Amino acid sequence: MKKIFQRYYTNLFLTDRLFTALGFCVLLFILKFFFKWLGDIPEIVTGLVFLLFLLDVVILYRNKKGVEAHRITSKRLSNGDDNPIQIELKNQYGFGVKLHVIDEVPFQFQLRDKDFKLQLQSGSIKSIHYNLRPTKRGEYDFGFIRVYTGSPIGLVNRRYNFDGAKVLPVFPSFINLGQYELMAISHHLTEFGIKKIRKVGQSVEFDQIKNYVGGDDIRTINWKATARKGGLMVNTYTDERSQNVYCIIDKSRVMRMPFESLSLLDYAINASVALLKVAMLKQDKAGLITLSETIGSVILAERKPAQLGHIMQVLYKEKTRYLESNMEALYSTIRSVIKQRSLVVFFTNFESLSALQRQLPYLKKISKYHLLVVVFFENTELKSLSIEPAKDVEGIYHKTIAEKFIYEKKQMALELNKYGILSILTSPQKLTINVINQYLALKAQQRI
């Protein structure tokens, strides 16, 4: 009996309307001291309020499940993207109700405003839609959906609790992968800012025989077909397929820096997943290596259907470290693991030219055996600071130092290019687009 009473009591909440009514009753009792003609009116009004209170409680608790609610989400959330969340509500009372819905979102979002107010007619169904944007990978615990239900009388609210203790994992960004896949297949990647460069292949993979046109390589003339047709015919070839594309992700302290709530490591992980997805669509093999003071995960390049899912499972658990990356261990791993010439995209960051000089000997060795692309980041905070006009002497100092660091970043790119190492200096927001553009350009130029 005590448990039943406690269950009803803990979910019963008094409303402002009830306190207003009780305040009015108190006012009537005070006025009765001065105006005797009020007689029994205060007692009658108070009794009426009490009866309405009991009636409100009865009609709200008469149905065991007067309101139903459940949260509709995907099985996992996409890091750095807006993930749609839906709450579906159904009124099973015989009258319309006023609802105050509070969704207890995971603490990582630090949100206290996911509450909604709506009216729901008898037997009707409504849905609430909103988005959540996680900025860290890991497990996110959702709490209850708290639904405070009020009858037309409106003196009390009954609370319902639904969908408690739901845990969703946050994986590297995957929401846009389907769009990249669709655009890649339909050759409309330019809609995402991705340029497609067309060039006739010169590899050993035969494509077709076609009529000669001005500009075709005369070395590809097919003399037998020319004799049969009576006009010049040439062989055309497609780009070589099934090349290895490896993403190497630096997990050292230089990748901890945040931009728009996401760390550089998360930007690199999201870009790697998108790049490897496009590479597999282009019939290439996708592989992964993670690096910090030691070698982390190593996934050999494959093109099997489960490869991308395996890569995402590995990247889901990766975290930044506090030490510098071990480039000697990386070079040894690449020489022992990657047996044929491959495209190696190295995601890292350099804050100074001296930091690049320490790693440059190993980068030069890697570039001897593979097509190496080094990806590092612009400091967008410094860039915005250099654009703003200086207002005082201190502002001039800050602006000058910011311009010095920006210039040094450009010097790093020139230093890499001097040794034949391709580089991408990009803002974190444009990382994915720029990396895929570079891959498609190299593919079209038959560099891989």
Written account of the structure:
- The protein has 448 residues and is α/β, with parallel strands linked by helices.
- Helix content is 38%, strand content 28%.
- It folds into 3 domains: 11-171, Immunoglobulin-like (Sandwich), CATH 2.60.40.10; 177-196 and 241-444, Rossmann fold; 201-237, no CATH class.
- The strands form 6 sheets. It has a 6-stranded mixed sheet, with helices on both faces. Strands 1-10-9-5-6 form a 5-stranded antiparallel sheet. Strands 2-4-7 form a 3-stranded antiparallel sheet, with no helix packed on it.
- The N and C termini lie far apart (76 Å).
Task: Write the topology of this structure.
Layout: H1 2-10, E1 12-14, H2 16-34, H3 41-61, E2 67-72, E3 77-78, E4 83-91, E5 97-103, E6 115-120, E7 125-132, E8 138-142, E9 145-150, E10 156-162, E11 166-171, H4 177-186, E12 201-211, H5 223-229, E13 233-237, E14 244-250, E15 258-259, E16 262-263, H6 264-281, E17 285-291, E18 295-302, H7 307-316, H8 327-337, E19 343-347, H9 353-369, E20 371-377, H10 380-387, H11 393-418, E21 422-426, H12 431-444
Parallel strand pairs: 3-11, 14-17, 14-19, 19-20, 20-21
Antiparallel strand pairs: 1-10, 2-4, 4-7, 5-6, 5-9, 8-11, 9-10, 12-13, 15-16, 17-18
Helix pairs in contact: 2-3, 4-6, 6-7, 6-12, 8-9, 10-11
